[in-house]
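[Q] Does anyone have a clean structure-token version of this?
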Amino acid sequence: MKATTQFLSVHPVLAVKDVLAALGFYVNKLGFEVAFADHKTNPMYAGIRRGNVEIHLQWHCASEWEHHIDRPMLRFVVLNTQALFDEYKTKDVFHENTSLKETTWGTKEFAFYDLDMNGLTFYEDN
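[A] Here you go.
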């Protein structure tokens, strides 16, 4: 019998200019916790976790940011987008167009960018 492979989770890696600043943003503003870091005071690679979601943050040198590169957009499936929206609206993370909306494709969602312009969308099915 052939063995079946199961995908259990995915840990996206986001490029960041400053791992410590990114950790501060995700921990202090978005409620994640540090899962690991390769160095205590000057990390170049670290992981953050909130619930079942884990994201890795990897330092990239300044020369890599000189050219416009499309940044990734992460979509987080959450329960109770209203409560999360209310939590984040007091954390000074939204841009002027951030709003909680119901979409024509049947989700309730909101989105904004992190410090390095990685897109973050939080949603639930209606």
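[Q] Thanks! Anything notable?
[A] The beta strands are 13-16, 33-37, 45-50, 53-59, 73-77, 101-102, 107-113, 119-125.
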